Every structure is written in C-alpha cells, then in structure tokens.
Amino acid sequence: AAAAAAEPVEKPVPRWPDGHPDLSGVYLGGRDIHVVGGVTVKPGAEGFKVQSRPGDLGLGAQCLPPGVPGATLAPYPLQIVAKPNLVVILYEAYNIFRIIPLNRDHEEDVDPTWLGHSVGHWDGDTLVVDVTGFNDKTQLAGFHHTEALHVVERYRRKSFDKIEYTVSAEDPNVFAKPVRYAGDLTL
Q: Where is average pLDDT lowest: 1-15, 23-37, 88-102, 132-146?
C-alpha cells in the first residue's frame, strides 16, 4: 500500500467549458527556457550587442523591467490567471504584470512601454500572444533592440504540471532572422 501511495498520479489538463486548456496556476519560469538556433545579427547592427563591464549587474540591479520575453525568462515564479476572454500574468520579479485581452486587435498608436502591448487568441490548444509597442530600453538575447521589436509567444499546457513556452522575436533593425526561445514553465 505504501508503494502504491508513493506512485505519482497523472492529473488531466484542466479545461474550460469551451474546451480550451485552463492555463491558470503559479509556474516557475526561466530555468528551462533557452535560445534555440542561435542569434543572427543583421549586418551593420553589431553595435546593438550589450557591452557589459566588470561588476555590471545589468538591468535587474536597477529594478528595471526586463521586457518580454525577459520577464518570463527570469528564474522566479509567475502566476497566470486565465479567464475565457482575458489572461493576466503576474510576475514575482519586479512586481510587474501583463493584461492580455483575447480575440482583439492591437490598439492603434500605443505609447511604447517596457512590456509592450499584448493581445491573444487560441490556436487549437495553444494560446498565442502577439506583443508590439515596446520601448527600446530592454534587451533580447544579449542585444539591445529598437521599438520595432515584435514578439509572438505560444503557451501550450502539455500536461497538468507543464506549459510548453515558445517565443519568436523579430526586430528588422537588429536581427537577420527571428530570435527563438523554447522550454517549459513548471507548475
């Protein structure tokens, strides 16, 4: 009986009445998410590389938001609060949050911000979040970027305790091809 009690029980992915997975939960981000396929800088954009000095602690030392996907890449918990027409992500690091309305277009003429402007939609069981409207104060894969940064995140709850997280980030002023990240968020 003790051996049977110690065996893990696989729980099903929770779902909304409409059939989409419920992403709600507190997850550990960052540790398992990595750049996939390397980073290719556009010729002439080498000056965007972040130059660090000895003892430089980066943006985090100044308590500045790391942007998207940087906030998810931090090795701290984040909470996803999902509703049928809205997703909110609360990050422990920096006490920042994102509000992601579903099935809407980007607002016109948004002011550039640290976390950009996010909208989402479902593609089957995957939540696709499109983010534009960034300022140029954050970094991506060791490079500065411009306000032309465009990020597409994908969240797929592949099991009860794992969300597969993938990112494609483009900045035509800096990168010759999209910067890609992939890994899991763990409940």
A: 1-15
pTM of the model: 0.91
pLDDT digits (tens, 9 = 90+) for 1-59: 555 556 666 899 999 999 999 999 999 988 899 999 999 999 999 999 988 777 666 66
Q: Enter the tokens of residue 134.
A: 């960034």
- 3-state SS track over the chain: CHHHHHCCCCCCCCECCCCCECCCEEEECCCCCEEECCCCECCCCHHHECCCCCCCCCHHHHCCCCCCCHHHHCCCEEEEEEECCEEEEEECHHHEEEEEEECCCCCCCCCCECCCEEEEEEECCEEEEEEECECCCCEECCEECCCCCEEEEEEEEEECCEEEEEEEEECCCCECCCEEEEEEEEC
